[in-house]
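ok so for the tutorial part 2 we go from a plain amino acid sequence to predicted structure tokens. step 1 is just haveing the sequence, like this:
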Amino acid sequence: MMLRAAWQGVGTVSRGTARRVVMHPRRVFSSGKPDGGTIVAAAPKSWWTSPEWWGAAGALAGWGMSGAAIYDAYTKGPEIISLNLTGVMLVYSSLFARWALVIKPRNLLLSACHVTNVIAQLNQMRRALEYKLAQGEDNEVKEIAIKAAATGVAGVGALAFGPKTQAMLVASKLGPISAISGAAAGPFTVHFWAPMSKWLISGASFMDFDRPIEKVSIPQYSALTATGFFFTRYALLVSPVNFVLCSVNIALFASSGYHLTRKINGDYLHIGM
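step 2 — the prediction. this is what the tokens look like for a chain of 273 residues:
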């Protein structure tokens, strides 16, 4: 009688054990707990709603960026290296190596790929600077050095004064300002600054809008385009949900895909040329 009632959608409690039975579309479980707790079979998770699946795909695309930098170091000359994009990617991978460790669920594969990418991009930066100096382009090298120093100072300042500033703003009860300051993905967290660094990648890509196609790296821009695609979905499945990260990956997919299309068309298709 108990199982029949459960299949009809009616919970039944036995007198002696206070055992609760609940209906499930396919199975009925009795917890057998004195407190009447229930156990319900979880529905199988779809790949579309799985942060592990999208996180692994995004991490593999990230490994593609690291692999592209290593591949270009061995097969391409330093003249194709974009100093703007390389500098931004150093900041980007440093932040995302940390971000991948603090989200839920953690993504160790993604963190490892960004640590690798930092090392690979440092090597690319070294090659590019040595080439610029050999070509007598000292002014451009000085500009990069100034930008790097400013970025370093800003980073140290954020680490030193960020927590105290956040605590002060939250305690001040300034309405929306305090709420934003204390948000899980607010401006005092890596959840905010990691996607903001990705906006810099999209910006660098747009700044190189008319970059000669012979200086566009197919491996690098293929990896960037794939990263934009996978992270657009992944950003909505992690905790905390990150709408800033979702929006920037849409832009990254568009900008990197544009350069990749130009390169493939110029080298292989020759449509409209």
